[in-house]
Specification:
The protein is built from 3 helices and 9 strands. The chain has about 240 residues and is α+β, with helices and mostly antiparallel strands. The strands form 2 sheets. A 6-stranded mixed beta barrel has the order 4-8-5-7-6-9. Strand 1 and strand 2 form a beta hairpin. The radius of gyration is 66 Å and the shape is rod-shaped.
Length: about 240
């Protein structure tokens, strides 16, 4: 088709375009609006995270941040915690062991000691030991003292001397030196055991008349007393009794 100078063909083309446009608008159908679906109970909540509240920065925190930035800029080392203090517990010092003190050895009574001047048994003077320290063998004995009447011989076979400082005991070795003290008055006398007795219950020693006179018991006859061994024959420390 050949178009000339007439404007008719251009007009027809314009009309055709307008018609096509109107036809396309007529074919388009309006879409129904989508309503929000109702939320069911127990349905999952929105996946969007709740908005965080803005954190207000206090002047002190801002100043701390500035100090931190300054340290990083100046490359200063961060302050380190002080090392834990190490406490060294030293073991207690060992106390020096106390030296064991040995008990004193046997002490022999010197020959010239007046204590044993009368301890002559069967005509022989026995070596004597003090009743103390390692030689302690006889404890004090408490009971009744009496004095016996005159007699001719004592258990050692010797003659009895009424005025001698002698006494009789049931078990002490012959020649033992003892001190007899009255517990009611405090009077005392030193005697040598050379006889056996007394054999009356409650009595522990029988004194000669001379020894009884020393402690003022002649009138009473019997008195309460304590018998203490001062010395005894050395042979008694060497095994079985060998001196009566």
């Amino acid at each position: 088709m050949v178009f000339g100078d007439s404007p008719r063909p251009l007009f027809l083309l314009l009309v055709l375009l307008i018609g096509l446009a109107m036809g396309s608008c007529a074919t388009m159908q309006p879409q129904p609006a989508q309503l929000p679906e109702p939320q069911l109970a127990g349905a999952q909540t929105s996946l969007q995270e709740p908005r965080q509240r803005p954190v207000s920065v206090t002047p002190t925190a801002r100043l701390a941040r500035l100090n931190l930035f300054d340290r990083q800029a100046q490359r200063e080392p961060y302050p380190q915690e002080a090392p834990a203090e190490v406490i060294i517990v030293e073991p207690p010092a060992e106390e020096p062991l106390e030296e064991e003190v040995a008990p004193p050895a046997l002490r022999l009574v010197p020959e010239g000691d007046p204590l044993i001047s009368g301890s002559v048994i069967r005509g022989k003077r026995w070596p004597m030991v003090y009743n103390e320290g390692l030689g302690f063998a006889y404890k004090p004995e408490t009971g009744i003292a009496s004095f016996y009447s005159d007699c001719e011989l004592v258990a050692t076979g010797e003659r009895y001397y009424p005025d001698g400082m002698t006494a009789a005991h049931k078990t002490l070795p012959f020649g033992t030196v003892v001190r007899v003290t009255r517990t009611d008055t405090g009077h005392s006398v030193v005697v040598v055991i050379n006889d056996r007795g007394p054999f009356i219950k409650g009595r522990i020693i029988d004194l000669s008349r001379g020894a009884a006179r020393k402690i003022d018991m002649i009138r009473r006859g019997v008195v309460p007393c304590v018998v203490e061994v001062l010395a005894y024959p050395l042979i008694e420390t060497m095994g079985p009794k060998g001196n009566g």
